[in-house]
User: What shape does this take?
Amino acid sequence: MNDTIVRHLVALIATIVAGLAYYAGYISGGYGWWWTIFSVLIVYGVVYSIVNAGSPPHK
Amino acid sequence: MEFFGATIDLSFWQWLYDQPPTEQALVLFALGGWVFLTYYLLLGMAELWAEYRTHTKYSNRFEWVLLAIDVPPMFVQTPKAVEQIFAHLTGSLAHISVGDKFWMGKIQKSFSLEIISIEGYIQFLVRTEEEYRDLVEASIYAQYPEAEITEVEDYIINIPDKFPNEEYDVAGIEFKLTNDNAYPIRTYQEFEYSLSKEAVFSDPMAAILENFTRIGHGENLWLQIIVEPVGSEWKEKGIALAKKLLKGEGAEKYEIGGIGSYLIKFLNFFATEMGNAIQWNFEPKDPKDKKKEEKKGEGVTPGMKKTVEAIEEKISKVGFKNKLRILYAARKEVFKPSSCISGVVGAMNQFQIQDRNGIVPVASTSAHYDPKHKKSNLLKTSFVKAFKARKMKWKKYGGYIMNTEEMATLWHFPLPFVKTPLLHKAGHKRAEAPAGLPIEVFESPLKPKISGQTSPEETPKATSPEELPFG
Assistant: This one.
């Protein structure tokens, strides 16, 4: 894959995620801060599960 | 609202209920729904990043070696020997850490087990990365001491990369397992039958190789099985499946992993509770129901027990991630894929066991509603690209797990009684033939790869060192 395309895609995804987080904070601010905190904690778990190299060879 | 002394404020939900549906959706998305979108975006980003690092830091340094393997014609070894070869290859299983994967771009190196027919000339090949060349050669020589292993040039470079092409046309098929990875296919041990006191082996390779012998002038039929060793994760899933079957629960055919499965479980729970609420049923589950569930396992049929035993036997052996695909490439004037491809597809049916597993085609280079062949030409181009690169994944079709026994069933050197006259085999003795014999020689279309070869004119003449004590 072309380097330029990958860089554009990564920048786009990071921008969307930042926009989503801002939108969530903006909306949930009116209803309670825990909505954002709870969602961000889920994102933490999601990222933790994604950044995984697979199971070790022999258990 | 008062609930056991605690006050619950439901004003937000009442307000949400009063809003129009679009507003409800927007608010729910902003409060937590965005996490699902984030999950898929980050997942895509992580995969892109890992692939990018692999291409720029790791796989661009790979040096692939293609080894042609010839075994002596009368050397009797069962597929068990090939099973041992595959067990030997698990030595290449790499431990990849998070840093290795996402920073160094490290991936598990794969092997390609190939059977090719170039205009009827049949050859068994193994493609490996230079690092594991010794491992491959040692594993083969350990089982076939008289085998001949020669490094050859890649035969596939003669086929064009882009289609349509004026000279060549191609047809390819990608295969998959019919059931979960844990279920075994019919292996070579089940191809034994007894007509007399001695067990007779009906070699499944005979049916496959028969199609390779039917290839004529200007035609090529190539089969490749991409394999890479895997860890023990698939075995744990197999144990869980066996336990489930013993309980009489049956397997969930379409399992969704990760966050999707939690979502489905939650929705299922939510729907059940909603149903209970509508029926005004808040009674706890009848304890008899629990006993009924416990008794479920007693109804397991003898056939199911055998299937569970087969699963346990499969997971007791080492596993490899596999991908089987065939490519028929021929000059346009002789292009007739149906003559051999349907035969190979049919030959794969011999590995099928009802209620267990089988090997079936999952995708091909042909397309529906394609009168101008635009879609099929795109498919052909991408299939040939995947075939040339020996990629595990083509389009959305990834690999599946097979153990060494299943792999040895699919790819082993045929036993002496399998009549494949044009299968290249190692000679018995390296002796000079008597003069004047009318010998017909089939020359190999595969060119041996000679590294650092120089022409006789360029060869420097050796001069003896000056200080030698001899004149």
Summary: The first helix of chain A runs from residue 3 to 28.
